[in-house]
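Re: duplicated header lines in exported structure tokens

Our pipeline writes sequence and tokens for each protein into one text file. With two proteins the header for the second block appears twice in some exports. Here is an export where it did not happen, for reference. First protein block:
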Amino acid sequence: MERDNQSIEPACIRQRFTRALNSYDRHAVAQQRISAEAAKILSLHLQPFGRCLEIGCGTGGFTRHLQRMLPNADWVLNDLCGESLAIAATHCNHSPQSIIGDAENTELGIGYDLIASTSAFQWFHDPLNFIKKLAGMQTKGGVLLFSTFSPGNLQEVKEAAGKGLSYPSGKQWEEWLAPFYNIEVCREEAIRLTFGSPLEVLRHLKYTGVTATHNGQWTRGMQEDFVRRYKQQFSTDNNQVTLTYRPLYLLAKRL
């Protein structure tokens, strides 16, 4: 099932994240918390993992957690950006195989006991077909662990800007996974950050590559309208503004 409104191309995503490469780790507060929580979930479902794949590894925020838990596994890392892959690989205990490319349309190998990913699945155009692809890559009883985002993610930006991504619900992901996996974890969380102004929110998104959620350039008038609406709707009592991430965590075992 394709998501017609999910029109962001991999080349655009790659360009935005490449531009944010030097600022990402300093500003990706929510993503770091998500990686830590995903690692905690995995730690409760550990089993012998020989061959492992991380999809959308970025600069290695989740990679570091995985390496600490599974130091002797045979790792394959994937990301759109070769520069990010090179950084993530430095966090590995042994030299991993690196695969550059859009995970939906790139050959990633087979025979995986673990496939893991954080904050990447929301970019995929056809989640159901991607789940089918992953199922074909995994061993029986293999673990699929990923985080994505749920409806209401970055809702402040979407309402103030009048546009933004839509996100499948946990129930929808469960329906996609059910023919291939036994679902053991499906849980949502809210991570609320505060900023001094709506412009700081925009800078935060730019520094973490998330500006790929909007195509095209903003005029000065559009930006002024955005700032006004954001302040009106999402100001706190101490004159800050909020930005809410809504991660969704899923862990499933291959049937």
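Second protein block, exported in the same file:
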Amino acid sequence: MKKNKLTIIVTLVLLICFSSTAAMAANVRYSDLATDHWAYQSIYKMSAQNIIAGYEDNTVHPDNNITEFEAICLAVRIMGLDSKTAQVAKGEYLPFTIPDWSGAYETAVVAYNSDLIDAEDFSHNQAASREWITKLLIKILGKENQVNSAANELTFTDT
């Protein structure tokens, strides 16, 4: 009898734990993201991992181009650098402009100090091109040296 009670208690505790996790993930709803949207699964997975936060109006604008600064915000979160934003002191010089968002300055400082932003090739409100995103991904993966050395070894030319 004691074994049955223990089994029931453990089962209930596990159900409560897992159902609350699922409920928290289910609470993330974006008013402009249909369940049949091609990016639905990816957006919700990244939301559950706190990589995508959406906009203040509970939207995510899934069909808009991502800006360079939005891509930087994702990179900072993917790399786990967002915890460093709390340590940023106001007044650090940034050689580029940033959006007027809550937390944008701190994110920009962390990204700039982590060499994710090249000030000469950055415009916060510009749509991020595939080339720009590729360069950012190389930085996130820490493969800049490999890519640079491989680029020097190319033996073909485009026609």
